[in-house]
Amino acid sequence: MIAIIDYDAGNIKSVEKALHFLGKEAVITRDKDVLLQADHVILPGVGNFGDAMEKINLYGLKPVIEEIVSKGTPFLGICLGLQLLFEESEECPGVKGLELLKGKVVKIPETEELKVPQIGWNSLKYPNKGRLYEGIPEDSYVYFVHSYYLQAKEPHIVVATTDYGVKVHASVEKDNIFACQFHPEKSSDVGLAILNNFVSI
């Protein structure tokens, strides 16, 4: 069973729908016992970094997430869910993230050519190809919606990048932690293949 963490963030239902399309059993929950018993856990999200951390702390989910990760359960962060895995974000100075990975989230610089937020399809490069991308060729297109992007401190955990005026660390993998800045659940066949790779781990 795949557990999707419910902390009142946007976009949770579309992740559930994509998993059901793949024929997988998925449940949206913030119940500690259900989360700890799950075979795979997903932290999706669209919204504000500070609001999200406030909800995660309000619902007592931070220690639960730490326990899930420490017991080796495959864990996937999506969009805001990727950003929350790191230490901090320029979106909300002074607010600590989950601090499971090292790095910070910074604002995409606005230029005349590039609109912020980035909304749309962009292609991936693989500096260190990860398990999520098995069978998915480099330069495949995925769907992004974000105003902030990751700068990971450990280059070896960055498994996919994209360019949007800056080099965006688009996906990371470290041990049993996986994350994507883009939305696999909205990225057509490529995204479904990524989700299928995750639930096969």
Q: Which structural traits does this protein have?
A:
201 residues; alpha/beta; Rossmann fold; three-stranded mixed sheet; 6 helices; globular
Can you walk through the features of this model?
The chain is an alpha/beta fold and 201 residues long. The chain has one domain (2-199): Class I glutamine amidotransferase (GATase) domain (Rossmann fold), CATH 3.40.50. The protein has helices at 12-21, 32-37, 49-58, 61-70, 80-84, 188-199, and strands at 2-5, 26-29, 40-43, 75-78, 88-89, 103-107, 118-123, 141-146, 148-152, 158-163, 167-174, 177-180. It has a seven-stranded mixed sheet. Strands 5-6-9 form a three-stranded mixed sheet. Helix 1 (12-21) links the parallel strand 1 and strand 2. The radius of gyration is 15 Å and the shape is globular.
Give the CATH topology.
Rossmann fold
Describe the main β-sheet briefly: 7 strands, mixed
CATH superfamily: Class I glutamine amidotransferase (GATase) domain
- How many distinct beta strands? 12
SSE sequence, one letter per element: EHEHEHHEHEEEEEEEEH
User: What would you call the structural class?
Assistant: alpha/beta
Pick out the low-confidence regions.
none
Return the CATH architecture: 3-Layer(aba) Sandwich
Overall pLDDT confidence: 97
